[in-house]
Amino acid sequence: xxxxxxxxxxxxxxxxxxxxxxxxxxxxxxxxxxxxxxxxxxxxxxxxxxxxxxxxxxxxxxxxxxxxxxxxxxxxxxxxxxxxxxxxxxxxxxxxxxxxxxxxxxxxxxxxxxxxxxxxxxxxxxxxxxxxxxxxxxxxxxxxxxxxxxxxxxxxxxxxxxxxxxxxxxxxxxxxxxxxxxxxxxxxxxxxxxxxxxxxxxxx
Length: 204
Prior knowledge:
Layout: E1 3-7, H1 13-21, H2 32-41, E2 44-50, E3 53-62, H3 70-78, E4 83-90, H4 99-111, E5 117-123, H5 129-137, E6 141-147, E7 154-161, H6 164-173
Parallel strand pairs: 4-5
Antiparallel strand pairs: 1-2, 2-3, 3-4, 5-7, 6-7
């Protein structure tokens, strides 16, 4: 079995939309306009490809993204720099293969050279114990709860500290070049929308 994590391609958005809306009650629905907006603006939007088939996706955003999610805004009010995992979906035939951990390892690799915190939320109503346990074993801890406006469901707001970031900040972002090395795995994905304004180098 060959697994690859890569940036989504525009012609795959209909497939992503179908996966999202078949995922169940813990994943909020999308429409064509919303998934296209993610494609244009999300800093991290990658799919898992298993033997040539799209098996899932993960979307994550930086702190200055123009995004109106109540959970994203909760973090923005409290953290100067972070990557926020908006959603992760794995298609039913591919669950149990460890793709969630593969995605989170990749998202952590993206985040830890840019920000000190990786964040997300899990539903408590209905309680998703599989997701709660997964995040707890992956180093996340609860930093708050809220009732999502317009949805009426309680969520647990989670954060994971990224200790590698301090080294990257001091050596590169606040170093002589003020940027990461020019390596493919460190590059930002190309986006159609305007780039989000960034805080000073080092993200703090």
